[in-house]
Design goal:
single chain; 270 residues; Rossmann fold; 4-stranded parallel β-sheet
Length: 270
């Protein structure tokens, strides 16, 4: 009798990954898909244990809170989902929403998680993406940043990029508004039409990226909203590398769970 040895027979037991979903729902799904994509596995048993808790109706709008349109902080409900994940066995947690990483929201959520007393590692999408960009541009560079108006106004990425010796470059005001519409417009935006994404939303995002590369001469395009990679899947645009923050987070979650199961970047095209 021949026994087939799987990766799981000789690799360390992975830590369970918990994902705060619903921010939006397709962003959570996209993160899970990318974790599968970046996992070194020879069969079902070699994939990592993952829990996706997607409760979009529980979580108030993040942009409306950050922009002062409501006083209801979504951090408490996000922290409640993190607590559920931790109590169900997750020891590594990621959240595929850049806007929700604002300290005004995230600190509240992490405090609720901390009060559980459980040993849980939270992996920041902002810090992970900036490290990735820094590795691409070790000598510095101009980084084209695309994200929601709330993410840009709260400088979540700008401050971290500058600390890393990089120059954040934002789209012009009208282009920032167009990106926001491509994400959230109920007539054609990604949140309303995710599968498939509407051609109009795709074209807006590509046009804005094109202007960043061709007119503002950025070295890298950073997709700083987890809705955008649902539409923009290219790894390069007009010879500029594209950093998909969701894909970066997926790799960092694998590394935190079981680094031996992370595929080498050279084995898979973003």
């Amino acid at each position: 009798m021949t026994v087939v040895q799987r990766f799981s027979d000789h690799l360390p037991v992975p830590r369970t990954i918990g994902i705060v979903g619903g921010l939006g729902p397709y962003a959570g799904y996209d993160l899970v898909r990318k974790i599968f994509r970046w996992t070194k596995a020879g069969g079902d048993q070699d994939h990592l244990p993952i829990m996706l808790h997607s409760f979009p109706g529980w979580i108030p709008g993040r942009p409306s809170f950050l922009l002062g349109q409501t006083e209801e902080n979504p951090g408490e409900d996000i922290g409640g989902i993190m607590e559920q994940l931790a109590r169900n066995g997750a020891t590594v947690i990621g959240m595929p929403c850049n806007t929700a990483h604002s300290p005004r929201i995230l600190n509240v959520a992490l405090e609720r998680l901390r009060r559980t007393g459980l040993d849980v590692t939270f992996v920041s999408i902002i810090e992970s993406a900036v490290r990735e960009v820094r590795e691409l541009c070790p000598g510095g560079g101009r980084i084209g940043l695309m994200g929601t108006v709330a993410t840009l106004q709260t400088r979540l990425y700008q401050d971290e990029l500058e600390k890393a010796g990089l120059e954040p470059v934002l789209p012009d005001g009208n282009d920032c508004a167009l990106v926001q519409r491509a994400i959230s417009d109920p007539e054609f935006g990604i949140k309303a039409f995710s599968d498939p994404v509407s051609p109009k939303a795709c074209q807006i995002l590509l046009d804005v990226a094109h202007r960043l590369v061709e007119e503002k001469r950025v070295s890298v395009v950073l997709l700083g909203c987890t809705e955008i990679p649902v539409a923009v899947t290219e790894s390069r645009l007009w010879d500029a590398p594209v950093v998909d923050a969701t894909s970066v987070l997926a790799r960092e979650l694998i590394r935190a769970s079981c680094p031996e199961r992370l595929k080498e970047s050279s084995t898979f095209q973003l």
